[in-house]
Amino acid sequence: MRVVSVLAAILGLGFLSVAGAAPAAAPKAAPAAAPKAAPSGYKIAPAGLSTIYDAPTKVNLAGRPVIADIALHGDMAAAKTGVLKLALTTDVTKFVDETENDLKNYIAGRYNDCGERWTSGEPKITFPNNAIRFELNLTIEYWQCGWNGKGKPGRMTRDGGSVDVTLIPFVAAGKLQAKLGELSIVVTDGLGKYVPLETLVRTAVNNEMKKLNENPKFYRAPNPLYAEMFRYEAMSAKVDAMQRVIITARYGANGKPAAFDRIVAKMKSEGITQ
Questions:
Q1: Strands 50-60 and 272-273
Q2: How many CA atoms within 13 Å lie on the side-chain side of 67?
Q3: In sequence order, which residues have a C-beta less than 8 Å from that of residue 40 and are 6 or more positions away?
């Protein structure tokens, strides 16, 4: 289902070729004489780390490449001892609207002549306290088509209300995972005699969470990091003073500092893949 790719896009790196995103045009080079702007947002290296890569980067994890501004920061002191620490940071603000549309399209696609028909209002995605929150108004109808499904469709029930879902990313055994933080449903329409709104939504969320956490494209570090044996250590999201959504993914591995050079070379030549 499309929700898997939606959640993977936001909770993973936040820009992983969100479904429906058109391929981005190649970035234009800045004029040679233009002064270099001071680092801001995702370009600021986390404490104790040094920036080793900062450039528009091709990202292709779903067969549809996009261009994302990415910065990669390494712990150079720890690398000398064989402990490799990397932090990947990016501004995903422009991808949030696309993901909201993707969620709306997923819901609109759940339409059956005989069975469930889903409709929704405009979804809203926010990032409170290192979590991701989905809010929308949702209506679910159940249509029955008589004996053996051969009769004329007739609506048996209709339920509508506001749905508020909060998911929390975390790392377990080097794998990125997500858990349900809160699920709130306020029914404003219907009695739910046959298919209660809460039952349907909770079942759908639980099923999608299971698929998400078992999906290697979600839980595994992307290449070229994975090829160098890097695993997830942490994931965080914040909204800065300019209302930009900044994602920071931290990775760890054992090896020599030369691994940083290989990763940077691959990022330049091939971008990020899965």
A1: parallel
A2: 10
A3: none
Place of tokens 């979804």: 123
**123 in helix, strand or coil?**
coil
Contacts 24+ apart (CB under 8 A), 238-242: 238/127, 238/130, 239/126, 239/127, 240/41, 242/41
| pLDDT value of position 36 | 42
Other beta carbons within 10 Å of 63: 6
> What secondary structure does DSSP assign to 130-161, as a single string?
T-EEEEEEEEEEEEE-SGGG-S--EEEEEEEE
* Strands (DSSP E) found in 199-270: 231-239, 245-254
- Which two tokens mark 242? 């300019």
Give backbone dihedrals phi and psi of 272, rounded to 5 degrees, phi first: -110, 130
Q: Along the chain (274 residues), what's the average pLDDT of each consecutive run of 10 residues?
A: 44 36 35 42 82 90 74 96 95 79 83 88 86 88 82 85 89 92 84 67 85 89 96 88 86 97 96 86
Contact 259, 224 (CB under 8 A): no
Q: Is 244 exposed, middle or buried (0-12, 13-18, 19+ CB in 10 A)?
A: middle
Instruction: Say how many C-beta atoms besides its own lie within 10 A of residue 100's C-beta.
Output: 18
- For the four alpha carbons of 140, 141, 145 and 151, in that order, the dihedral sign comes to negative
Residue 128: Cβ within 10 Å count: 11
Q: E strands, the chain, where? A: 50-60, 66-74, 83-91, 115-120, 124-126, 132-144, 154-172, 175-189, 231-239, 245-254, 272-273
Question: What pLDDT does 105 receive?
Answer: 84
